[in-house]
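Morning!

This is the sequence you dropped in the shared folder:
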Amino acid sequence: MNLPTLSGTPRRRWTRRWDHPVTVRMANAEDTEAIRVLAERDSRPVPPAPRLVAERCGRIEAALSLRTDEVVADPFRRTAELVELLRWARA
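The structure's back. Tokens below.
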């Protein structure tokens, strides 16, 4: 989609997209270690259960506590959109 500008030169509106599908699901007991490692990478405590997780390419990249709204996310990947998605799914 092209948007007009004051100079008359059209600029392009970029939409965000993911190169790989994202799965949002409830965390289970098998995810405990992956969430612990994720929290360690994010330098945050493990959020209390129950949790929603966002998974991409078979890897948990963000987790949201349904009890406290605490979030952990991989600081080395683009995860801001995943956190937004988790918050939307929680609602």
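Headline: Helices lie at 32-41, 80-90.

More detail when I'm at my desk.
O.
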